Known about the structure:
Elements: H1 13-23, E1 28-32, E2 45-48, H2 49-65, E3 73-77, H3 82-93, E4 97-100, H4 107-117, E5 121-124, H5 129-138, E6 144-147, E7 172-178, E8 186-191, H6 192-203, E9 217-220, H7 227-240, E10 243-246, H8 252-261, E11 266-270, H9 271-278, E12 293-297, H10 301-311, E13 315-321, E14 324-329, E15 341-343, E16 350-354, E17 367-372, E18 385-386, H11 390-396, E19 402-410, E20 416-421, E21 425-428, E22 431-434, H12 435-443, E23 448-458, E24 462-471, H13 478-489, E25 500-503, E26 533-535
Parallel strand pairs: 1-10, 3-4, 3-5, 5-6, 9-10, 9-11, 11-12, 12-13, 24-25
Antiparallel strand pairs: 1-2, 7-8, 8-18, 13-14, 15-20, 16-17, 17-19, 19-20, 21-22, 23-24, 25-26
Helix pairs in contact: 1-2, 1-3, 2-3, 4-5, 6-7
Amino acid sequence: MNLSTDIRDGETIRDLFDAAVRDHADRPFLAVPANPRRAYAPAGREISYGEAGRQVQRLRDAYRRAGYGVGHRVALLLENRPEHVLHKLALNAIGVCCVPVNPDYRAGETAYLLDHSRPDLVLTIGSRRAQVAEALAEARHRPAVLTEEEAGTGLPPPLHAARHADPSPDTPASILYTSGTTGRPKGCILSHGYEVASGAWYAAIGGMAAIRPGEDRIYNPLPLYHVNSSVVSLFCAIATGNCQIQTDRFHPERWWPEVGQTRATVVHHLGVIVSMLLARPATPEDHDHCVRFGLGAGVEPQMHAAFEARFGFPLIEIWGMTETVRLLADSTENRQVGTRAIGCGVPGIDVRVVDDADRDVADGSPGEMLVRHSAATPRRGSFSGYLDDDEATETAWRGGWFHTGDTVWRGADGVLHFVDRKKNIIRRSGENIAAAEIEALLLSHPDVLQAAVLAVRDETREEEVLACVVLKSGTTDERSARDLFAYCNERVAYYKAPGWIHILPALPTTGTQKIQKHTIYPNGTDPREAPGIFDLRALKRRGRGNG
């Protein structure tokens, strides 16, 4: 890796974007692939840096005239539309913090986000206004709502006066919600310095993932409410005068037509994307593209080399998380394909592998990965903390190292290999799902006595949610399982609902009545083959507005 020890975190997003507009006015900034079935830009759209700069300036002036500035927050429910990026850049330029909203959230989940982040305004699109209204009906905090279509006709004033209108590198730019192991999602506060540094770090990875200034087009099908698309690739593109290609979402049938049509040279992927593309019949499009490399995580080892051989470009395996700006990447010429290798610690990201007592383990032994910038400045370039949860922030940073919750092992050559999440997180199609959140939801059902939620392997989506439940009624039939699924599916995003439900007469517990998840199924057995388990995956469907 060709990474500089100097993390670029001393400037604001406005500084970075204004410089890009000045230096790259005629170059493409954002591209939207054509999709005749999509409600916006069905024929596709491309926006230059110059055009984006003019649009952002108009929005910036409108927000400033309405009284917005440092100390304000605006929730954005704009799907993966380019308007999300333009409004974010305008709001960040005057010091407003953006709170992206997952469009798949149910009303209760959005209400929690609004109550927790307390935005001054919710900006959405007309087709989502009813969805916002449902959330506000359940929320205690009820900010003004404006559709993007109405934004030019006047903005409602913020709830209080701005501190000032000039952000600094430490000013919050985003609050991104990420599932933890304790139930409700945590709000990760990301500063201007964090987001600028994130793009600069990606741009400097080098090796087989070298970014070419002014020449690359980065196709990112991942959602703008996640750090990958809204921060890592976006600010890499801005820092290097490149173009971000933002589709509405991943679909295997549209991947290669969109990649080819938009002349993408870099693609972002997840393990589920790789498996779904490999499962499709071979076509001439397999090699009719300009892609130099893919960047992502979670590729199944047995698929890694097969994908590269079929499609003709390397998949660079990375590690990263919302809490830290810095990616690790196995991007050298002698990378270790098919081993879940994620690269080595480098200047600017120290790494330890430890046991449960934070003692270093020997090379080759699995342990939790801890990271920091350096001994002198451990938290440099990391998130600013969890919103209104100093205790969780300090627990994660205990001992001067950030505890990632990810299990890895390190080879004698220093290369780290990802093993799994440490506990209680289910990774489904790139979404982190907290087992504790689904357990709490199940226990709120009047007929549930006990609940334990586990991850089970899924051939397509990496992992699926398995709920083991004991009912007060003692019934174990499929109708009860379907009722439980419906109860969950009405209250949480579709991907969080249990794909498998196993109704059992009892769950194993300790003397203090703590459920022993590891003893529910004997070692070496596949829970999906257990007698009486119900496969409800076919019931999981994306909600309205996600066609």
